[in-house]
Automatic annotation (TrEMBL):
Name by which UniProt lists this protein: Membrane protein
Family matches, as Pfam families: DUF6049 (PF19516)
Keywords: Membrane, Transmembrane, Transmembrane helix
Region named Disordered: 497-522, 732-787
InterPro entries from the UniProt entry: DUF6049, TAT_signal
């Protein structure tokens, strides 16, 4: 009936409008029945949709998008302007159409706002009547599939708003088709008009978290130069901080707002690493130099952050934004996990202070989506947090509160749960690139904050908004628009997070942390597995063993320590394959560094004496020296081959960067043949370092028996030579005796000296020639002849 009376589109009188609204309120009573008493629904934070609402859901031939709504929270004397687009989604042309504005009933409670926002059909009673036709926009024809823009402008005073509150406001397109030749509503979009004609009895303190968080961009790998030029896995960080990029927009928008900055120190350190020159990994594994333009972007962005946070509250998360819930549910029983979280917390403050020159708060923990359990609280506080940012859909109110309580909740042990509002915190998660979505989000934000203040005027409370960790540029813009729409002098006032945590808690608000079994299954499925924490532990253990031999640990330990922090990052949720790849890259690079200090393979060594030295070479391909290593050479058969004084010998090793050193071991052989030996490096605490090498020592020494045999053979040769000599001398004497030995005889010299065959001087005992050279006389008996 109300719709039939509106067909001529004659403007109703003021009394008629009042009557129409009264009828609308009565008609909507059934729809809002469960919402008029918001006690349970408000406390639970979950609206109940009436069964009658199902009948109101009808397919809409026309889609209505509200692309702008200004002002978001008008006052008396303002002019409300709404613009947008209507799109005919049906297959029929709509004629004799117009776009009109409908003022619905004032809403009672925050759940009523939720309910109205979810309705997708037209309900005559709940959606109210159109205002005067002079404010409508005529559309002669809207063909199938066609879109047309519209713009409505109306003085707020002509809306005849009653008392303060939140009014449902609808923009509808009415018209007719050939199949239905009478006017009816073809499509409608609803939003909300907050109305506060006079100052509120109290104000709500509003805390908005503004997160500067990104995904991990660095592993531990650096270029092989003295400067240790960092290597980025890709160049996406440069895109984020470039003009128009996500992080650039977050800073540019945030500087004008009264907010609390929540920062991951790893993001700051990564951008800082770009300033001095960096390299980017290509898909084929090679690297390329980062551009000078990106280096300048990094410098400019950090300068803008430093300027924006000056005088504002800044909260530093643990380095790398570790996933507290994953550690609590999967990692805390893996040795070292809690220690890594504590270390990430300790390094956070110094990182932020060094780069931004401000001292941050580090006593806040922020579990994913504010979902808390006793184990999550325990892990957070073990790392030094005294405040845990929870969310109201996790810590639900169990009582009969008819209002939203303050955020601070003491939960025991000196720990405070700062409970963010789930409605406001999740409001900007949609696709805010669409103007229609952004407009609706802003109006719901403004409406919900005013409704919170009106719930219990005079009872001033604190409200915390903890949005998604990494808002897109469009989401950040929408968040900023929503904050700017609030008037500090009306129903809300800004407050920083530390002040919100110290607010006097509501005695009736819940302080019970839900049990471990209440953790949302969808979030649990995204957690890092226990195997991930075991891999992290193994990497940390190898790093601990490696660092003790380094002469300059600062070149290795901090980069790997921070890379291990990134392995526990919250950003890996839902990205199991990418997280595994990241851990593998870190582990592989550590293995490469460890393998840069190694033993050089050795072939068979030959030992040709009773004792000798065997060299073993240690190679160091690192850019720094190594020390505190021990090289052990061990014999597998010490009874045949002793090394040093027994089975093995240890010798200290110290090698400069890029050099090799040969270590010599004393050996003693007791038998011939090959003897297997093993060389192994150890750290000073007795842990094996690197892979051993094995080779044979082939013993070929002379034993005492062989020496006796050889000595006997030499003696026999000497005796045989002496016997031959004596026999020759005897024969010579006998021959001389037979020849008489007189002067002038052959063989006698002028003065009794012997002559050789050439007539020259001879030696005593030499024989003369048997005959003169070339003598024509016949040879005598027994003479020899030269031929």
């Amino acid at each position: 009936m109300a719709e039939a009376a509106d067909i001529p589109r004659t403007g109703p009188s003021a009394a008629r409008r009042w009557l129409g609204r009264g009828a609308a309120l009565l008609a909507g009573t059934a729809l809002l029945g469960g919402l008029l008493n918001p006690a349970t629904a408000e406390a639970a934070g979950a609206p109940q949709a009436p069964a009658a609402d199902a009948k109101a859901r009808t397919a809409q031939p026309v889609s209505v998008s509200l692309d702008s709504f200004a002002p978001a929270a008008p006052v008396k004397g303002d002019r409300l302007t709404i613009s947008g687009t209507v799109t005919n989604q049906s297959k029929r042309t709509i004629t004799d159409a117009h776009v009109g504005l409908r003022v619905g009933p004032v809403l009672n409670g925050r759940s009523a706002i939720d309910h109205a926002a979810r309705r997708d059909g037209f309900s005559p009673g709940a959606d109210g009547l159109e205002i005067d036709e002079e404010y409508a926009q005529e559309i002669d024809s809207l063909a199938a599939g066609r879109s047309l823009p519209f713009r409505l402008s109306v003085p707020v005073d002509d809306l005849d708003l009653d008392s303060e509150g939140i009014y449902q406001l609808g923009v509808s397109l009415s018209g007719q088709t050939a199949a239905q030749p009478y006017e009816q509503v073809q499509g409608i979009e609803r939003t909300f008009l907050p109305w506060q004609p006079k100052a509120a009895g109290g104000q709500t303190s509003l805390t908005m978290l503004w997160p500067l968080i990104s995904t991990p961009h660095l592993t531990a790998e650096t270029d092989s130069d003295e400067e240790q030029t960092p290597i980025f896995e890709d160049d996406s960080l440069a895109e984020e901080i470039a003009p128009g990029g996500r992080l650039e927009r977050m800073v540019a928008l945030g500087r004008e707002l009264d907010i609390t900055w929540v920062v991951d120190p790893d993001l700051l350190a990564s951008v800082d690493a770009m300033r001095g020159g960096y390299r980017v990994r290509n898909e084929d594994g090679t690297t390329r130099a980062g551009s000078e333009q990106s280096e300048k972007l990094a410098t400019d962005w950090l300068a803008s952050v430093e300027s924006a946070v000056a005088g504002k509250k800044i909260v530093a998360l643990p380095y790398g934004d570790p996933d507290i819930a994953s550690i609590a549910h999967r990692g805390k029983n893996v040795s070292g996990s809690l220690g890594r979280l504590k270390d990430a917390t300790d390094v956070a403050a110094s990182t932020v202070e060094t780069i931004l020159h401000v001292k941050p708060s580090t006593d806040f923990a922020w579990p994913v989506e504010g979902a808390v359990t006793p184990s999550v609280i325990d892990v957070a506080t073990s790392a030094g947090a005294r405040n845990v940012i929870a969310r109201s859909d996790s810590m639900r109110e169990a009582g009969s509160l008819t209002y939203t309580p303050s955020a601070a909740r003491p939960i025991g042990g000196g720990t405070t749960a700062v409970v963010s509002d789930d409605r406001l915190s999740t409001l900007f998660q949609g696709d805010m690139t669409k103007a229609g979505n952004a407009t609706l989000a802003v109006q719901r934000f403004v409406a919900q904050t005013l409704m919170t203040t009106l719930q219990d005027e005079g009872n001033e409370r604190s409200l915390v908004v903890a949005p998604q960790r990494m808002p897109t540029a469009s989401q950040a813009r929408t968040m900023a628009e929503a904050l700017r729409a609030l008037d500090d002098e009306r129903w809300s006032t800004p407050q920083n997070l530390t002040a919100a945590a110290k607010t006097e808690p509501d005695a009736r608000a819940t302080t019970r942390v839900p049990g471990n079994g209440s953790y949302p299954s969808a979030l649990r499925k995204q957690e890092l597995p226990k195997a991930a924490f075991e891999e992290i532990k193994e990497t940390q253990d190898r790093l601990d063993r490696f660092k003790v031999i380094l002469t300059n640990q600062d070149r290795v330990v901090p980069p790997f320590g921070r890379a291990v922090d990134r392995e526990m990052s919250t950003s890996w949720r839902g990205l199991a394959e990418e997280a595994q790849q990241f851990r593998s890259v870190v582990s592989t690079y550590l293995n490469q560094l460890i393998g840069s200090v190694q033993l050089i393979e050795k072939s068979e060594a030959k030992l040709s004496g009773h004792s000798a030295t065997i060299p073993v070479t240690v190679q160091n391909n690192l850019l720094q020296g190594v020390d505190k290593l021990v090289l052990r050479l061990e014999s597998s058969k010490p009874t045949r081959l002793k090394i040093g004084e027994g089975r093995y010998q240890d010798q200290p090793v110290k090698v400069s960067g890029g050099h090799s050193q040969s270590v010599k071991f004393t050996t003693t052989a007791n038998a011939n043949g090959p003897v297997p030996v093993r060389a192994q490096l150890y750290t000073e605490d007795g842990r094996a370092y690197g892979a051993p090498i094995r080779f044979d020592v082939n013993v070929t020494e002379f034993t005492p028996t062989v020496m006796l045999v050889l000595a006997g053979g030499v003696l026999l040769l000497v005796l045989a030579g002496f016997r031959m000599y004596t026999q020759r001398k005897r024969q010579a004497r006998e021959l001389e005796a037979e020849q008489g030995g007189t002067p002038g005889d052959p063989g006698a010299g002028p003065a009794g000296e012997g002559q050789d065959g050439d007539g020259g001087p001879g030696q005593p005992g030499d024989h003369g020639p048997d005959t003169a050279p070339e003598s024509p006389a016949p040879s005598g008996p027994g003479e020899t002849v030269d031929r």
